[in-house]
Design brief:
Elements (H helix, E strand, L loop, with lengths): L2 H5 L3 H20 L4 E5 L2 E7 L9 E6 L2 E6 L4 E6 L4 E11 L3 E8 L25 H4 L4 H18 L5 H16 L12
Antiparallel strand pairs: 1-2, 2-7, 3-4, 4-5, 6-7
Keywords: Cytoplasm
Pfam family, one: CS
Main location: cytoplasm
Length: about 190
């Protein structure tokens, strides 16, 4: 469904669609052989392995656009192309309690949410991501401003109100009209 089609739905229809989408996403994500979470600058993945697994038994490869995780001599648990590029030198993996591999990936683009980890896995709707407020305060001023603007514009769109850019355009037009009362704008079509 396109943004325009979504915007035309009633409030109740939007809520029902959002709920159905969240349930579908949750079931798709639960079916993956790992769990993951992200912030604007990083992605953390937890891959369960049989209890008692030792580090030397693992085969983990982290590359700029590829990730593979598995136990030597067995089928790979994760293997494929990452949806976005990472900084290999700042990305790590560890084995915790001999039962889970914790992978930390540092994003190259720190201003973009990931839809999925590997491109062939189910996607999430990144427009619905709400960053934790405590984490928002940790961002540098420019990034924080950008995230807050995106959140504001998203809320405005959901309520059918103008975005911040549209509000600026309307304000500029009002100022221009006030400065030029001799011009007739009654038949003007503004886009």
């Amino acid at each position: 469904m396109s943004d325009d089609e979504y915007d035309k739905l009633s409030k109740e229809e939007r809520e029902a669609k959002d709920k159905a989408d969240r349930e579908r996403e949750a079931s798709e994500q639960a079916a993956l052989p790992y769990t993951w979470r992200q912030e604007l600058n990083e992605v953390d993945i937890v891959v369960p392995v049989p209890k008692g697994t030792r580090g030397k038994e693992l085969a983990v490869t982290i590359q700029k656009k590829k990730l593979s995780v598995g136990i030597k001599g067995k089928d790979m648990i994760m293997d494929g192309e990452l949806c976005k590029e990472i900084k290999v030198e700042d990305s790590t993996w560890t084995l915790e309690d001999q039962q889970s591999i914790v992978i930390h990936l540092e994003k190259v683009n720190k201003q973009q949410w990931w839809e999925n980890v590997l491109i062939h896995h189910p996607k999430i709707d990144t427009r619905k991501i709400q960053p934790e407020n405590s984490k928002l305060s940790e961002l540098d001023g420019e990034t924080r401003g950008l995230v807050e603007k995106m959140m504001f514009d998203n809320q405005q769109k959901q309520m059918g109100k103008p975005t911040s850019d549209e509000m600026k355009k309307m304000e500029a037009l009002k100022k221009f009209q006030a400065a030029h009362p001799e011009l007739d704008f009654s038949n003007a079509k503004i886009s």
